[in-house]
């Protein structure tokens, strides 16, 4: 058990280690859900349509998730998924670079490519 604690500490400082619930109207989307994020990492949110991804990101962006750091403490970027017709002709990498640029996130294309591959996207 001691080794597990040491390995966990090597991952970095906790940015968020909280349990929360999230509803959309009368529908409970997440009930007593545990969220743990490490400082210095980038995270993506994946799931099926209607599972509450956008609702969760809006709640984080609006500082409505109990235990999640405020915007003064951490940078969060929520990119709406509505596509312009011009966007449909772009590659995933180009679209991601465009949206991150619009959000003033400074990142290199190789870093974006690496993250997308880690999330199962092909370049």
UniProtKB/TrEMBL annotation:
GO molecular function per UniProt: ATP binding; ATP hydrolysis activity; translation elongation factor activity
Give the protein name, as stated in the record: ABC transporter domain-containing protein
- Name the InterPro entries for this protein: ABC_transporter-like_ATP-bd, ABCF, P-loop_NTPase
Q: Start and end of every ABC transporter domain? A: 30-66
Organism ancestry: Eukaryota, Metazoa, Ecdysozoa, Arthropoda, Hexapoda
Keywords (alphabetical) are:
Repeat
């Amino acid at each position: 058990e001691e080794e597990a604690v040491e390995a966990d500490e090597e991952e970095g400082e906790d940015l968020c280690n909280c349990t929360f619930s999230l509803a959309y109207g009368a529908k409970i989307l997440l009930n007593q859900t545990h969220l743990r994020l490490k400082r210095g990492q980038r995270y993506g949110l994946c799931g099926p349509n209607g599972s509450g991804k956008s609702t969760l990101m809006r709640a984080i962006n609006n500082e409505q998730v109990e235990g999640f750091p405020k915007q003064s403490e951490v940078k969060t970027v929520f990119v709406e998924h509505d596509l312009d017709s011009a966007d449909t002709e772009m590659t995933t990498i180009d679209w991601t670079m465009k949206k991150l640029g619009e959000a003033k996130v400074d990142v290199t294309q190789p870093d974006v490519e690496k993250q997308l591959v880690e999330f199962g996207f092909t370049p």
